[in-house]
From TrEMBL:
InterPro entries for the chain: AAA+_ATPase, ABC1_TM_dom, ABC1_TM_sf, ABC_transporter-like_ATP-bd, ABC_transporter-like_CS, P-loop_NTPase, Type_1_exporter
Protein name: Antibiotic ABC transporter ATP-binding protein
Entry superkingdom: Bacteria
SMART domains per UniProt: AAA
Lineage: Bacteria, Pseudomonadati, Bacteroidota, Flavobacteriia, Flavobacteriales
Length: 609
């Protein structure tokens, strides 16, 4: 059994009763599929006037003879009706019996489908929930290597494929095989030598179909990977639409998209051809067997007279009845191969090890009392260190600014403090406790983060700002907006704080979006504030508004400011000048100017801009 199939079993445990009932109803369906065909036999015998006459009511002689007892009892009642009321009433009895058995067969089919539907939809929901929990919990570093579109394809498309494919296994191992088994047993009772033909046909058919289905899983995996790549292209095109248009790069993105859908077309056609061939091939082989049965069985009926004509017609009906489950088995086996490929992609994400997790008995810290200390930190994203033997102490209430050229490692400090990444060597402590020993939610509750990119969601201003404090009142939200210097534009919006700001907040200007990000951090009211180049993307006028908002927010808080524009951090208690992952200077603004070193050069360069 495939390992991915075994991994799905825990997801079915909550639906054990549905599985049990599905199996029970499938067994009953398979049984009544044969009984419903057999019920046609007495009807034909009545029509042809060949009903077996049973003069007296049969006696039940134990469970071993229940089949013969049931058959004799039916023929007894037919004989009685024939004698007392004429053949039309006997015919009415057997027709009613046919209707009743077919009704039961279809009722059990419906009930089996009802339970498998609940199983499939329930497992789909649970798998998607587990996968979403996983992709939210995985560290930021995972998404710097993976395409977001591919992860979306795995969660939406591949999980759906798992649902559609895998649960056909229940039909594959219960419903269809039992339908064939019950039919074969009955056929054997009617004529054992005719049944030999059918038993030869089934393994030959299975062998041919499995040969055609070879390599289907590998091609399905390729198609699903290509589907993920396709969604990535669409996601990246929409996210960077302004850049695509402004650089007239539409043709390049169209070419990438067209190349991808052409590859997907070829793979889909190849898979589809094999899938489509399974059903007609199994039907053709079945009809070939029926034709041989007609020739051989016709001889038994017409020439040798060893088989009754009505029994032969029922036998043929049963033989044809095997074709439908045989086709279903061949289709389901192909479908399972698609499902195996999809499951491989789903579990690849679910089994990614999250390196940044809570330790056992992690410390829940709710206050910040003394200092943040970074000691001898080395950190690398790939092979080369971005931070080299970096040490820094930030006292409670201080505003510490990190400055330096792009690539000097400033933003990496923000990523490490919030544990988006973990240090390779060295330690970060808050009040003497290593952040690796702290419960992650409590660590991040101590911090407010305002990034260079204002990340807002397609929702109302109120929903965006209350992200860190969901029970916030409208008054608290308005107060946070005022501190962030944002209420002056929010109050003029049609619905005020209940105005939807569009995808990524694109109904607002850059400065307005940034002030909402600051308001979100203000409302959270954390003791430590991390500002990662919060004003670098703004024009001069917006920067003034945002700078006032930042100064309001930083009052009575410990702040770590990563700054590109040096004019914004002149009032900082400590300015740390970084170069290639190391501290080259530190001090207050006037002290650093007096040193006439790297900081002074940076200030002079910016004053000339």
């Amino acid at each position: 059994m495939d390992s991915n199939l075994l991994k799905l079993i825990p997801y079915t445990k909550a639906y054990t009763s549905n599985i049990v009932w599905n199996i029970i109803y499938n067994i009953l369906y398979a049984l009544f599929s044969t009984i419903s065909m057999l019920s046609l036999l007495p009807m034909m015998e009545v029509l042809f006037g060949k009903t077996k006459s049973i003069p007296k009511e049969p006696v039940f002689e134990g469970i071993g003879g229940i089949m013969d007892y049931g058959k004799d009892m039916l023929y007894y009642y037919i004989s009685e009706l024939n004698r007392e009321s004429g053949p039309q009433f006997a015919l009415l009895l057997v027709v009613s019996l046919v209707i009743f058995t077919f009704l039961l067969k279809n009722l059990f089919n419906y009930l089996a489908s009802f339970h498998i539907m609940h199983l499939k939809n329930g497992v789909l929901r649970d798998l998607r929930q587990t996968m979403y929990d996983k992709i939210i919990e995985l560290p930021v570093s995972f998404y710097s290597e993976k395409r977001k579109g591919d992860v979306m394809a795995r969660m939406l498309g591949d999980v759906g494929e798992v649902q559609n494919s895998f649960f056909s296994i229940l039909e594959l191992i219960v419903k269809e095989p039992l339908t064939i088994v019950f039919a074969l047993i009955t056929m054997y009772v009617i004529s054992w030598d005719l049944t030999l033909f059918v038993l030869i046909f089934i393994p030959i058919s299975g062998l041919i179909i499995s040969k055609i289905g070879k390599n289907l899983k590998a091609k399905s995996l390729q198609a699903q990977n290509e589907g993920g790549h396709l969604i990535s292209i669409v996601e990246e095109s929409l996210t960077g639409l302004k850049v695509v248009k402004s650089y007239n790069a539409e043709s390049r993105f169209k070419k990438n998209f067209n190349d991808s859908i052409t590859r997907l077309l070829k793979l889909s056609n190849s898979i589809g051809n094999k899938n489509n061939l399974a059903s007609p091939l199994s039907e053709f082989m079945g009809i070939t067997t029926i034709a041989i049965l007609l020739w051989y069985g016709g001889n038994l009926v017409l020439v040798q007279k060893t088989l009754d004509g009505a029994e032969f017609i029922i036998y043929l009906t049963l033989a044809y009845n095997i074709l439908t489950p045989a086709k279903a088995i061949s289709k389901a086996s192909y479908s399972v191969k698609n499902g195996l490929a999809a499951a491989e992609r789903v579990f690849e994400v679910l089994e990614v090890k999250n390196e940044i997790t809570n330790k056992e008995n992690a410390i829940v810290k709710t206050t910040f009392d003394d200092s943040i200390s970074l000691k001898n930190i080395n950190f690398r994203y790939a092979k080369e260190n971005v931070l080299k033997d970096f040490s820094l102490d930030v006292k409670k209430g201080q505003t510490v600014a990190l400055v330096g050229q792009s690539g000097s490692g400033k933003s990496t400090i923000a990523n490490l403090l919030t544990r988006f990444y973990d240090v390779n060597e060295g330690s970060i402590t808050i009040d003497g406790i290593s952040i690796k020993d702290m419960e992650m939610h409590s660590l991040r509750n101590l911090m407010g983060l305002v990034t260079q990119d204002s990340i807002l969601f397609n929702d109302t201003i109120k929903a965006n700002i209350s992200l860190g404090k969901e029970d916030a009142t409208d008054e608290e939200i308005i107060e946070a907006l005022k501190i962030a210097n944002a209420y002056e534009f929010v109050k003029d919006l049609p619905l005020g704080i209940n105005t939807n700001i569009g995808d990524s907040g694109n109904k607002l200007s850059g400065g307005q979006k940034q002030r909402l990000s600051i308001a979100r951090a203000v409302l959270k009211n954390p003791p430590i504030m991390i500002l990662d180049e919060a004003t670098s993307a703004l024009d001069t006028e917006s920067e003034k508004f945002v700078q006032v908002a930042l100064e309001n927010m930083m009052e009575n808080r410990t702040s770590i400011v990563i700054a590109h524009r040096l004019s914004t951090i002149q009032k900082a208690d400590l300015i740390v000048v970084m170069q290639k992952g190391k501290i080259v200077e530190q001090g207050r603004h006037d002290e650093l100017i007096a040193m006439n070193g790297t900081y002074n050069k940076l200030v002079n360069m910016q004053s000339l801009e």
